[in-house]
Write a structure and sequence with these properties.
This protein is α/β, with parallel strands linked by helices. The strands form three sheets. A five-stranded mixed sheet has the order 3-2-1-4-7. It has a five-stranded mixed sheet with strand order 10-9-8-11-12, covered by helices on one side. Strand 8 and strand 9 form a beta hairpin. Helix 1 crosses helix 2 and helix 8 crosses helix 9. The longest helix has 25 residues. The relative contact order is 0.14. Belongs to the ROK (NagC/XylR) family. Pfam families: ROK (PF00480).
Amino acid sequence: MRVYAGIDVGGTKVALGLFGEDKTLLGKAKFPADPSLSGEAFFRRIVEVLQSKMEELGLPWEQLQGVGVGLPCMVRYPQGQVVLCAMLPALNGFPVKECLEKLLPGVQVEVDNDGHCAALAESRHGAGQGRQHMLFCPVSTGLSSGIILDGKLFRGSNGFAGESGHTLVTPGAGIPCGCGNQGCIQSYASGGMIVRHIRQWIAQGEPTLMVQLAGSPERIDARHLETAARAGDPMALKALDQMALYLGVWVFNLYMTLNIDCFVFGGGLIYMGDLLFDRVRRVFDSYRHTQEPVDFLFAQCGQDAGILGALELLFPPLS
């Protein structure tokens, strides 16, 4: 039996899945990501866990045919080299694919960013199944998109396609983002950035239930925002409306650019459900003046999206 591994590297943990040749999940493992390790030591650790899991499942090492890796980084494709990795800075510039090919001689290795992997997972296993064109839009600490065109992942010239959360709407104005610019959509609408706006409003003297819920402004997160909004807190509703405005503009701009009629939303903020996304839909529809149907769907692959998408890197669609 041929065996394949899908590896999802996150900022705090690494998830690993082993699959049979029919893509049946054989077993999973999860372990902490150590940001202090050098690139080579980091991936040696992953290979050690992979070997241990195969032994535990009684799978001979020689059955391993391919390893796909998703990273929380900008990845130069097809070289599989990290360009920039804010969560694991020791990997900046590291040639992941080359390293793994040396550690795993004779094994196919593919490396891409985690957003692209999740788009593949949803396209082939989740909410986007059967759709020729799909945009996967994770809404979480940050914003990005994975673009499926004609059933294939679109990566762009260097592998960076989909960093749409950093498209600019108010250049030079607003809270500076980690991307190095001011005025990108992410800086107004992501879960990680909206709390900075909330803290600014609190500092300006606006009252909010969120301080009581969190204990202090510094501890406010998206969960407190949701609870306060459902209780009718004016600042929380103001924050939700700001997020919805910019998310709706973001999705509208993507729709106008690519004319894709299937948006699959993933990421941590989809738990807000209709509270947030009904507002996003209203903004989107307010700018759209055509009648063609456009679907807003929620991701279905859950916590396995990362390992499934990394696996699918090994199975490009037939031309």
